[in-house]
Write a structure and sequence with these properties.
Elements lengths: L5 H14 L2 H11 E9 L5 E3 L1 H15 E15 L7 E13 L12 E13 L2 E9 L1 H7 L31 H15 L19 E8 L7 E2 H16 L10 E5 L2 E13 L13 E13 L2 E9 L1 H7 L4 H6 L3
Parallel strand pairs: 1-6, 7-12
Antiparallel strand pairs: 1-2, 3-4, 4-5, 5-6, 7-8, 9-10, 10-11, 11-12
Pfam families: SnoaL
Protein name: Polyketide cyclase
GO biological process, one term: polyketide metabolic process
Amino acid sequence: MTLSPARDVLHSSLCGLFRAPEDALEAQARALLSEGCRFHLSAPFETLEGRDAVLDGFVRPLRAALSHVHRRDEIFIGGANRRDTGGDWVASVTHYVGNFHGPLAGLRPSGHLAFLRAGEFYRVEDGRIVEARIILDLPDLMRQAGRMPLPRELGTEMLFPGPATHDGVCPTQGDGAASLDVVERMLSALHAFDPGTFASADQTGATGTWAEDMLWYGPGGIGSNYRWSGFVQDHRAAFLTAFPDRKGGNHYCRIGDGNYAAVSGWPSMTMTHRGPYLGVAPTARALTLRVMDFYRCAEGRIAENWVLLDYMDLFAQMGVDLIAEANALP
């Protein structure tokens, strides 16, 4: 299912887009992006139509906000989309690294080093990107700037680590189809849960899809956790209490590459806000959630899971402006 060597060329070109000097930026973009490309970005950026709009609405603002910015990829994989929407895609977990010296999306800068994490899916035709979906973890950037508007009450807030095996960038070993099979088996059983224990069938134990020592790396506001018990305690219980009717898995893309798999929905989830969540009282509003999940599999189970959620958009639907709240903090 891999797209190598096209995947490897795209990896190099994306890194070059942010390293390029300004006088070479447009030429670099022409080689990488189709003229009519469409970028769907997390809130508050939203959709950009065409190469020039992508440069002016995404690439240049990021270069201006994070001085001397560069990509630091933790996962970069590619494959044919298993969903009916089709297409060849590459997907990445990356950090945009630089000194946070200029405002980004209205967020006041810290003046210090920042690792802005992102999840990215790119559809590729004839060696160039024609479509992208990108989630920037702005709540985590707020945390790094010392102005986190969400209460610290869930998992451990931390920099996303790379895979324990250190082979997530353009992997060369493993069976991508088998990796995606494991993930899809997990997802199919995850929908139903016991409201008392928040357990779902076939997640753990002898028939489970998760390794006993699973690691789950969550976005800003949720944080990361260890083992299934930590996942329930530090994420699942709070989320399902707040959104008990959530339905997920509405994915436009699912790919596997080596020991890795990635899935994304835009939105993936629909749900109703029935309980308190991260300091927000229940609103009874119908909500949607954009999701990206990246997995490393080992011995037929999921060992690590990196999760990007568009919480800027979710909290806006609940009536909360996280950037305004962050900027109001000292």
